[in-house]
Amino acid sequence: MYLLLLALIYLAFISLGLPDSLLGSGWPVIHNDLNVPTSFMGMITMVISGGTIVSSLLSNKLTRKFGTRIVTVISVFLTAIALLGFSFSNQFRMLMVFAVPYGLGAGAIDAALNNYVAIHYTSKHMSWLHCFWGIGAIVSPFVMSWALANSTWNGGYRIIAFLQLGIGLLLLVTLPVWNVNRQEKEESAKSIGLIDALKIRGVPYLLIGFFAYCAAEATVMCWACTYMVEVRGITADRAAGFASLFYIGLTVGRFLSGFIMNKLGDRKMILLGTGTLFFGLIFLLFPAGSPIASLVGFIIIGFGCAPIYPCIIHSTPVNFGAENSGAIIGIQMAGAYVGSTFIPTLFGLLGNLTGFAILPVYLIVFFVLMISMTELTFKITEKKQ
Question: Rounded to two decimals, what is the model's pTM?
């Protein structure tokens, strides 16, 4: 039963990743079909992130009341309904409407599952589970690339929607399996509010660091495809497939990181990942011409990003106590979605004004902020311990 539950959680992480890369990989065609500017993708991500912020802040209370398993199943079905709505949309405002359930579902499951894994499993499982998120994120650009070449972008959304529905149904019929890991500490964890969480020493720096990382990661996810089209001159359908290279680097990196994560620890893994992604950014700074350097750069950046997200999450119960982790991780997710909403949107506006070639420099700013704040958090909590 224990292994079956772990397999179901892995599957749930795949469902988390499936929708995340669809919009960015299909947008060069979607915005033309709907006759809206390129920067309008930021409006959709803002609505999605607004829903995720709300559900992330409520996730601790929802999980305490209904349990992680119920929150997970309902969230998967919400995102499936939203994706199905996207697949039938032929006007921009319809995408905006269906972005609401998309965001509500994504935020709740993200916060609930991450806290559950951080408490019940070691850091290697956190890394491998997020590797499975990457599998979902890798699948989607290939599906969208196939749909753009053989059908329409709507077909890509429809395929992913049916996959999501299938995962939701499987999670629904296996709900009793979750009883194997039920512990009183999950049920009795105290609920603290935003103000109380911010009063805990080190939490504000953690939130800023996580905000900066997720902002940079989301910018790559949203705009890598457009960068390849506008700056490197690749066709839209090929760029949709090439955009998956970032996710491949991310996924392979998380798989390999799992073998050394328990030995090195969360802090050293974050430093190692940061050094790697900065090396990848050098390739994006190469002069325009052959797209090979950019393709290699996105793979290395993904490889470097691999351990950062899971290690920041996994270190939260250790740094601030398991009794506070549910609330803090919920707030972390809310802050992360603020970053993933406004920072890619800001890049879209800047890209329209100055050109999308500014992507590498834009990313450097936020990755520097991320490593500065996370290091400060570890130093503060190390002194407390």
Answer: 0.77
